[in-house]
């Protein structure tokens, strides 16, 4: 089985790992500590002398650790063009997070959780892929920013340890009942007609009318818009029509204005599309800019999953490492399978039936049509990058080592059962965040933490 258990994948954890930024913890801590004031704003002083600012179960956190992490957090805010918090507050957060992380890493090691080299290799490859680099180029870039590749790999290993610890300690305790799903759906139904609780996507085709147009010009442009409306209602592709005829700046995207809260659309557009079913086309709408033809692309309650989603149809071969088969050996075996399939020596389904170690083996590894979130994130992240027919490199998940082939993709409308399952996943994610926060506070409370004053 590879079904989702809602843990953050390596891709999720590391997608924010900018080239000049270390891999971050699972969640930034928000608790503060007076010892954070020991970190100097002038980081040049750190290079001249270092000192311990906190001790966590006999392991030190140094002023240098905090200063380096603070600098990288500031770079991350700058790269994401976000407003930088107050330096003292950010410093306190960084220190508290380093303390939390150290306590959790100690717990992971004490309880026997390990991360082998193939897992770190895969994490490193994920970071390189996300930044559209080879691993060698990634090493070169981070070295330019003063980060040793060995140190970077150790940071990735720590993030994997934290992920596996969370998978073991937090996730098995989180459940969402049928009653909770039903109550949530009823609550959303009660507010479904309130515009503030709706999100919609409208596409437009605009026939612009110049500001000082004569009546003759206006009539000619209205006739042009009317012809476009008739073509749209006759079934022509609205995206193609918008690209061909629209005078709006959004014509390159097929006129789509994007999924947003209803109250962020002009009242004129809301009035024209209020009674439309999804896919419906409005009458001509006259505004100061000209004549608009509007199509209601999507409309749903903000608290519910989309009704139209992209499904993936894939198959896989799963090998489970054991005493006789290491992760590295499993990867080598799957690489050989991949080579044999691509050279035409055999086919994927045959190898899956003969070798795969899960319930899909009898179906040639076929996993059927899957909606977003159905598989564990580390599996889904790789599957989503494949083109139809493409076979992945071997990847490691919590279930073992996989080889994936994407067969096809399609857009589909969710049925009631699928929508309920997506709501269940959404509620579970929320519960996981809350459970993780409580668990992290408990680990922090059980750790011996001694704050140190800076030397005088």
CATH topology of the largest domain: Triger factor/SurA peptide-binding fold
Q: Which architecture of the largest domain per CATH?
A: Orthogonal Bundle
Range of helix content: 40-55%
In terms of per-residue confidence, which ranges show pLDDT below 50 for 5 or more consecutive residues?
Answer: 3-48
How many structural units, i.e. domains? 3
> SS-based structural class?
alpha+beta
Order of helices and strands: HHEEHHHHHHEHHEHEEEHHEHEEHE
Radius of gyration: 27 Å
> Total helix count?
15
Number of strands: 11
Q: In order across it, which strands form the biggest sheet?
A: 4-3-6-5
* Shape by Cα distribution: globular
Biggest sheet details: 4 strands, antiparallel
Oligomeric assembly: single chain
* β-strand amount: 15-25%
In round numbers, the mean pLDDT is: 83
Distance between the termini: 59 Å
How would you describe this structure to a colleague?
The protein has helices at residues 10-14, 44-48, 63-79, 87-110, 117-130, 135-144, 149-169, 178-190, 215-233, 238-245, 267-273, 327-342, 348-355, 377-384, 416-446; strands spanning 52-56, 59-62, 198-208, 260-261, 285-287, 290-301, 308-319, 366-370, 395-397, 400-413, 449-451. A hairpin with a 2-residue loop joins β5 (285-287) and β6 (290-301). The model is unreliable at 3-48 (pLDDT under 50). It is 45% helix and 16% strand. It is globular, with a radius of gyration of 27 Å. It has 3 domains: 10-169 and 443-451, Porin chaperone SurA, peptide-binding domain (Triger factor/SurA peptide-binding fold); 195-301, Chitinase A, domain 3 (Roll), CATH 3.10.50.40; 308-413, Chitinase A, domain 3, CATH 3.10.50.40. The protein has 456 residues and is an alpha+beta fold.
């Amino acid at each position: 089985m590879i079904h989702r258990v809602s843990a953050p994948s390596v891709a999720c954890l590391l997608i924010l790992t900018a080239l000049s930024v270390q891999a971050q913890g699972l969640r930034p801590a928000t608790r503060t500590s007076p010892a954070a004031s020991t970190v100097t704003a002038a980081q040049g002083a750190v290079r001249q002398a270092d000192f311990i600012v906190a001790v966590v179960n006999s392991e030190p956190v140094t002023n240098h650790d905090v200063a380096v992490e603070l600098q990288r957090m500031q770079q991350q805010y700058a790269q994401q063009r976000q407003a930088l918090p107050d330096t003292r507050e950010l410093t306190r957060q960084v220190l508290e997070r380093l303390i939390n992380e150290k306590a959790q890493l100690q717990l992971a090691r004490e309880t026997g959780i390990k991360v082998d080299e193939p897992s770190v290799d895969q994490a490193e490859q994920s970071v390189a892929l996300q930044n559209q680099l080879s691993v060698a180029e990634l090493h070169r870039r981070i070295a330019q920013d003063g980060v040793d590749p060995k140190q970077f790999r150790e940071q990735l290993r720590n993030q994997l340890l934290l992920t596996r610890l969370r998978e073991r300690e937090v996730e098995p305790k989180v459940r969402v009942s049928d009653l909770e799903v039903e109550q949530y759906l009823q609550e959303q139904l009660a507010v479904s007609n309130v515009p503030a609780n709706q999100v919609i996507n409208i596409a437009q085709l605009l026939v612009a009318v110049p500001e000082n147009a004569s009546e003759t010009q206006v009539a000619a442009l209205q006739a042009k818009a009317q012809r476009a409306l008739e073509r749209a209602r006759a079934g022509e592709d609205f995206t193609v029509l918008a690209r061909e005829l629209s005078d709006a700046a959004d014509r390159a995207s097929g006129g789509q204005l994007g999924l947003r809260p209803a109250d962020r659309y002009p009242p004129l557009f809301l009035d024209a599309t209020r009674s439309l079913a999804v896919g419906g086309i409005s009458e001509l709408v006259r505004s100061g800019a000209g004549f608009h033809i509007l199509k209601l692309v999507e409309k749903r309650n903000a608290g519910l999953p989309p009704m139209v989603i992209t499904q993936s149809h894939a198959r896989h071969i799963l090998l489970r490492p054991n005493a006789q088969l290491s992760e590295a050996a499993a990867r080598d075996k799957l690489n050989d399978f991949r080579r044999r399939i691509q050279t035409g020596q055999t086919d994927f389904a045959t190898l899956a039936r003969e070798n795969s170690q899960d319930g899909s083996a009898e179906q040639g590894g076929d996993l059927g049509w899957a909606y977003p979130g159905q598989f564990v994130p580390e599996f889904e992240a790789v599957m989503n990058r494949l083109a139809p027919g493409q076979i992945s490199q071997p990847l490691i998940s919590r279930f073992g080592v996989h080889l994936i082939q994407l067969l096809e993709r399609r857009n589909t409308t969710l049925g009631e059962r699928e929508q309920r399952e997506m709501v269940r996943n959404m509620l579970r994610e929320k519960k996981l965040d809350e459970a993780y926060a409580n668990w992290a506070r408990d680990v922090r409370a059980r750790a011996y933490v001694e704050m140190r004053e800076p030397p005088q």
